């Protein structure tokens, strides 16, 4: 158990931005929103999974929408608590703990906004160990936890409580509402008991994100290679260092979808890497061959600074390094791949193991 | 207070189909669904507004969607009760009475389906005195009753509880969910106390519908003019007798929208009438001039039989008579016209009084 103060969020947001594999929202925005909430309402307590009582009511807090929208349409920061209260009303009981459903720039921070405003503790863990674009793509789903009941709230005060017959239906209904509400909303969902957390969550990912953010910052300060430091911590492998030469991006169906082409520089001169994304990076092709796929992490970092580059932040000329890093092993089970493997997203290939360094 | 048995629904459905001004769903389908529910679960009690206790919890039950869809995708008849239960859970109390939100072929019958299955009585009245396409177009809205909280359920078992910041937002969010759910869903909403019914509802419209249906049937049996009998009962005026020569219809945004052109026959030879509709008939132009507009009732009846013709039932060659009939006077107040006057629907004209016979 420890207290999170505004200054603690710099490293955390940076690391979560890297783990978010291009999605989960802008880390800078997320950090500012959480810092403001903590300054106004006081520090947030983070607890380990083993510190949560078995009968606790743990609620996941997140933002849903297209990150291309959320960089312009900032949350009012009331949505998280509005969604939480609507869910609690439906449940007939109060939440005792909040948890991020995914790590990512904005979505690792959303629970801190709600936690600061409600005084509830945040659990150190998340439901993915990365970020994914759709609500049903959660490890708790593999142990029978459902996304529904799912409360959705917008900045105007509209709320919905969705009880889908499946996680896919909950996602579908929440997504259409999200688009109608302006493509950036807050959700409270995936209610878990404390004794489900060990099997349902990826543990200690907030700590991992903070370590990752610190490693990058320290390497930069020491004039070392921040990207190499991040790769080491993640057990990841460099897929390409180069510059962005083409980005095609559109906001459709409530997502930021597109492709980016990178041209290798330095030792990678002559090589090309193509990234396909739907909020998050999902597939990397190097010189035409698939070398990394969802559910493994495909992380784009600024080559000089090691700062995460989100899919909505990709732009021509940016000098970046793309890392591949292994996902939580549960994602590679048949159930995990069905939820978030490349075929779910329409790619005509199976998951391929990451290349060895 | 009286009991409604399956045989009572023939006249009621016919009359409600006429009052539904082309919308509110197919009367034949509606009747069959309600008759089956009553056969399976027992008769339904109908009570007058003055028989409802002041502290009663009255819930409106209706179908939402495009009638072009609901004629093919029949309700499972579980949706009404699923929606009602979701709303009751949200309210934290049980409904004591059900009421139609509008009269119309399917929507006058939906409360009977729910009433048969739950044993609750149905209030003799409705929220419009006709049918309208959008959820916020209700007279209770003029006395401060809100559509929200609004529960929506589909045939698959998906439910949503919507709490919009305005009736327009509730409509918008329900409509997008409705489209995603297959364009034909059931709703439980517009919660009223018993003491709000007198000011909020149009009284005795179920009785009026039944009288209207009986009048038409009896005139037909007596080889009299069933359309003239209906017009007399409604205080309505004949706008044109003719045949349908053109129908343009599309299902878009969750509605059946379009236009129909009628060519006069008999005494109306040489005249033409154009009807514009969005689920319901909203505007009639005779020989190019607007002669009837929403919120007045524009009813299309089969000239020979007096049976109501819904907007989705309009087809080339059909011999019909179009009646105009006065709406409830509250619709002609500024608030009523703002909700459902011709300008709301995008027509560049004000409400015009119906021609005198």
TrEMBL record, chains A, B:
<dbReference type="InterPro" id="IPR048350">
    <property type="entry name" value="S-Me-THD-like_C"/>
</dbReference>
<feature type="domain" description="S-Me-THD N-terminal">
    <location>
        <begin position="8"/>
        <end position="163"/>
    </location>
</feature>
<feature type="domain" description="S-Me-THD-like C-terminal">
    <location>
        <begin position="166"/>
        <end position="354"/>
    </location>
</feature>
<dbReference type="InterPro" id="IPR010318">
    <property type="entry name" value="S-Me-THD_N"/>
</dbReference>
<dbReference type="InterPro" id="IPR024071">
    <property type="entry name" value="S-Me-THD_C_sf"/>
</dbReference>
<dbReference type="Pfam" id="PF06032">
    <property type="entry name" value="S-Me-THD_N"/>
</dbReference>
<dbReference type="InterPro" id="IPR027479">
    <property type="entry name" value="S-Me-THD_N_sf"/>
</dbReference>
<protein>
    <submittedName>
        <fullName>DUF917 domain-containing protein</fullName>
    </submittedName>
</protein>
<dbReference type="Pfam" id="PF20906">
    <property type="entry name" value="S-Me-THD_C"/>
</dbReference>
């Amino acid at each position: 158990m420890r207290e999170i103060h505004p200054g603690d969020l710099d490293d955390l947001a940076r690391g979560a931005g890297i783990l978010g594999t291009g999605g989960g929202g802008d880390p800078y925005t997320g950090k500012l929103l959480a810092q403001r909430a903590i300054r106004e309402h006081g520090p947030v307590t983070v607890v380990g999974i083993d510190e949560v009582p078995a009968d606790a009511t743990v609620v996941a807090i997140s933002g849903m929408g297209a990150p291309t929208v959320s960089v312009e349409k900032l949350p009012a920061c009331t949505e998280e608590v509005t969604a939480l209260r609507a869910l609690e009303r439906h449940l007939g009981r109060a939440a005792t703990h909040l948890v991020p459903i995914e790590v990512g720039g904005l979505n690792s921070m959303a629970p801190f906004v709600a936690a600061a405003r409600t005084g509830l503790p945040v659990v150190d863990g998340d439901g993915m160990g990365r970020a994914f674009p759709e609500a049903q793509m959660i490890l708790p789903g593999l142990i029978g936890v459902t996304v529904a009941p799912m409360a959705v709230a917008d900045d105007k005060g509209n709320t919905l409580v969705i009880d889908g017959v499946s996680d896919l239906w909950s996602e579908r209904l929440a997504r259409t509402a999200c688009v109608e509400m302006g493509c950036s909303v807050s959700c409270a969902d995936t209610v878990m008991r404390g004794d489900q957390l060990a099997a349902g969550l990826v543990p200690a990912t907030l700590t991992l994100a903070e370590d990752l953010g610190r490693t990058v910052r320290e390497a930069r300060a020491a004039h070392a290679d921040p990207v190499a430091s991040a790769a080491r911590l993640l057990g990841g492998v460099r897929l390409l260092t180069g510059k962005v030469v083409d980005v095609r991006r559109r906001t459709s169906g409530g997502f930021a979808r597109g492709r980016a082409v990178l041209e290798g520089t330095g030792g990678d001169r002559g090589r090309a890497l193509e990234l396909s994304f739907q909020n998050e990076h999902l597939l990397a092709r190097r010189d035409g061959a698939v070398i990394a796929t969802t559910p493994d992490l495909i992380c784009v970092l600024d080559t000089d600074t090691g700062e995460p580059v989100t899919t909505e932040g990709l732009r021509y000329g940016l000098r970046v390094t793309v890392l591949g890093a292994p996902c939580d092993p549960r994602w590679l089970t048949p159930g995990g791949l069905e939820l978030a493997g490349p075929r779910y997203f329409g790619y005509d290939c199976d998951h391929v193991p990451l290349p060895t360094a």
